Amino acid sequence: MFQLATRIIVRKFLVLIKLIGRRKSPFLFLPLLVSLLVLWPTIWWFAEQTSQTLLVPLPLEHALDHYRRNRSLHHYLSNIQTLIEPSWTPCESLDEVPVVVLVTSSPHNLANRQAVRETWAKHQPTYFVMGLIGNDVDDQLVDSYIEAKQFGDLIVFDFHDHYQNLTLKTALMMKWTLHRCPQAQFMFKTDDDVLVNPWMLKKVIKENGDASLLGYSINGTQLNRSEYSKWFIPRWLLSDDRVSKYLSGTGYLISGDYIEAILKKAYNIPIVNLEDVYFTYLVAHKQLGLVLTHDRRLSPYKPWLKTSCLYWEFASIHSLSPDEMVSSWSRLKRLVDRGNGTSECWFFESYLGDYSDVVLY
Ligand SMILES: *[C@@H]1O[C@H](CO)[C@@H](O)[C@H](O)[C@H]1NC(C)=O
Ligand SMILES: *[C@@H]1O[C@H](CO)[C@@H](O)[C@H](O)[C@H]1NC(C)=O
Ligand SMILES: *[C@@H]1O[C@H](CO)[C@@H](O)[C@H](O)[C@H]1NC(C)=O
Ligand SMILES: *[C@@H]1O[C@H](CO)[C@@H](O)[C@H](O)[C@H]1NC(C)=O
Ligand SMILES: *[C@@H]1O[C@H](CO)[C@@H](O)[C@H](O)[C@H]1NC(C)=O
């Protein structure tokens, strides 16, 4: 039916072109011109407007339904079992662990995990945390067991892996760190599309050894009530219109000395879906009065100028595809192999310094 209609339209159009081509009916130019210049933008505008209203709403409200029944973090954590975890971690043989990195991943993101494994994960203990998705849970578990056996860096919990469940995932990371790596000086919570510069991360830690929470501070944010937003948070979850400051969830450090206090306190604070707003602002800052230390090197952005010095300048950069991760890493690695960025990147250090954010997006 559709094909037939298309064929008829195309045929009519060809006839029209032929007519114009023969210049037998020059009056045909006018309507064609009018339709092109006037009608087309109008139709386009109309389509834009209606597509806004016709867009099927993302099932976000529905995704948050379980928080209408219970918003107790303790309730969720006590019902979630650990399905897979490494049998051994370096934490078992080391007295001092400067940082343990926990990466939020998801069963479908194997390519991201491989990119991270091939690149920065080799430089400090790094683990991927995920839940389960959909109906073929058994197949997924088999895949995860094989992957876990091969790499020894998977932690899988029996909860539904969904963007709106990141708060649970982060809480599980904290619980796991307390249990398996209690001596870690810091836990670094990050994502599988983040490139970490292990050398700069160590420097950041060295310079801020006594910070309780450390990351990229986002200040005076207006909460988004639009269901189309990735950062949607309904009023019934959090009535405040503004959040004075929180650390971007793309990568923040929590001091090992405070993980337990934060988790315990969170048991009394009703869950919200935005994990960074929840843990760094609502629980740590607002309730516990902990200082959120801003460090621009833990950036939630990435440089648009793809030079190795910019990769050197930041401890984390966000939103990289697996391919980008590998290519950015090889630039950074070459720089490090020649010495490190400190001498070669003096221009960026001294001239851009605090303004190096201008090369980010
Ligand atoms: C939520 O779960 C907690 C812990 O299991 C329980 O004490 C509490 O009564 C529950 N709240 C509601 C509203 O069901
Ligand atoms: C989040 O996880 C809980 C526990 O597994 C589950 O009940 C809930 O449906 C999940 N939420 C989403 C949006 O999948
Ligand atoms: C947020 O505020 C802190 C001071 O509280 C400041 O150092 C930091 O630069 C601000 N963050 C951004 C992204 O501007
Ligand atoms: C909320 O998100 C929507 C969709 O992404 C966006 O158009 C709107 O500007 C955002 N509002 C605020 C206050 O950030
Ligand atoms: C880079 O090299 C210099 C000189 O060897 C050293 O002092 C500095 O600590 C190094 N920086 C990092 C971040 O490794």
TrEMBL record:
Q: Report what the protein is called.
A: Hexosyltransferase
Recorded hits in Pfam families, A to Z, give: Galactosyl_T (PF01762)
What family is this protein classified in? Belongs to the glycosyltransferase 31 family.
Keywords for the protein's UniProt record, in alphabetical order = Glycoprotein, Glycosyltransferase, Golgi apparatus, Membrane, Signal-anchor, Transferase, Transmembrane, Transmembrane helix
Recorded topology in the membrane: Single-pass type II membrane protein
Q: List this protein's GO terms for biological process.
A: protein O-linked glycosylation
The record's PANTHER family line, in alphabetical order, gives:
BETA-1,3-N-ACETYLGLUCOSAMINYLTRANSFERASE (PTHR11214), HEXOSYLTRANSFERASE (PTHR11214:SF314)
Indicate the transmembrane segments per the record.
27-47
Organism expressing this protein natively: Helicoverpa armigera (Cotton bollworm)
Quick check: keyword Transmembrane helix in the entry? Answer: yes
Which compartments is it annotated to reside in? Golgi apparatus membrane
What EC class is this? transferase
Enzyme Commission number(s): 2.4.1.-
Kindly report the protein's main subcellular placement as a broad class: Golgi
Give the GO molecular function terms. Answer: hexosyltransferase activity
- Provide GO CC annotations from the record: Golgi membrane
